[in-house]
Automatic annotation (TrEMBL):
GO molecular function: xenobiotic transmembrane transporter activity
Pfam family, one: ACR_tran
Gene Ontology cellular-component terms listed: plasma membrane
Name of the protein described by the UniProt record: Acriflavin resistance protein
Chain ranges passing through the membrane: 12-30, 339-366
Keywords: Membrane, Transmembrane, Transmembrane helix
The keyword Transmembrane is assigned to this record: yes
Recorded superkingdom: Bacteria
InterPro entries linked: AcrB_DN_DC_subdom (IPR027463), Acrflvin-R (IPR001036)
Amino acid sequence: MKQIISAVARNPVIPNLLMVTILISGFFYFSQLRREAMPEIKTDIVEIKMVYPGASATEIEEAIVIKMENEMNGLDGVNYISTISKENAAIVYVYLKDDVPDKQIVLQDIKDRINSIPDFPKDAEKPIIQIYKTESNGVILVLHGDAPERTLREMAFDIENDLQTLGISQVQLSGVRDYEIAIEVKRKMLRSYDLTMNDVANIVAQGSINLASGSIKTRAEEYKIEVKGRKYHATDYRDLLVKVRPDGTAIRLSQIADIYESFEEGKCLGRYKGKDAVLITIKRTGNEDIIQIANTVRDYIHDKQPGLPKGIDLSIFADFSEDVTKRINILITNGWQGLVLLFFVLWFFLNIKLAFWVTVGIPISFA
């Protein structure tokens, strides 16, 4: 150690080069730091998401959720399981015990069991299994203007896809309603054809389901057979057979009801500045930088706005990165002001050389 100190003392170029290297490295790694409003909080919850396009909540429950629950019953480290079955998707939360020594081992056990289930629906997407992590808002956009609800909805989903293509992982839409098929039955026609509302409801339910029809086994593989009968458009229901009269005349659903595509009732609709609107919430997760996300969104809005139809605007409703930027600016401003004050105080009471090296030494120690 003494030899190193003496060598540095004899050759002042070495410490100067070392100082410059430390400063450059410090500034480089400072620019790579993740900036966030709130730190990420990991929980003792495993989240399982599985998408099954076109499936009802009941089908999700029977074809996915129950199988997952049965497979994970009795798994070591699991406290209890909570599930959500909704249209097109299943969400399962697995709450781990407090005394689990290694959550990653339990997570891998859950993955192995879920992936070993052989009879998930063919059209279902691969399950996403991960430790549940907290999310924080990054930027909230608002798409608003004089346009039909369907147009705003489709444009909002296009914007969501564009943002995800740019590398933003979490984008949520609010103020949009899902499509639904409305069937308004005419009472007069029911009486004329001797039908009841229950008859029509049962016929509609039975005429729009996917039926499991067994399986074919070979020596090496097993093939599941399923009859696809679910209907997704109003036109698909119009020719649905309701009744056959004694004279052989077929009564179709379109003869006794008005069938059209609409939106779900009872859900919240967005309004902004007196016009229909959709809120687009962009969240920060994992290692994402909130300021980088905000810059990406601003650039996207700048490029997207000229291509939007006349009367429709895409603007920033709330930018949570501004608070982070202000805090960083306050920190930097206080830092350099403190260094300047320290330099002049030491210069006034001692000497300028000592003041210079002490002032330089403080940022080097942080670097």
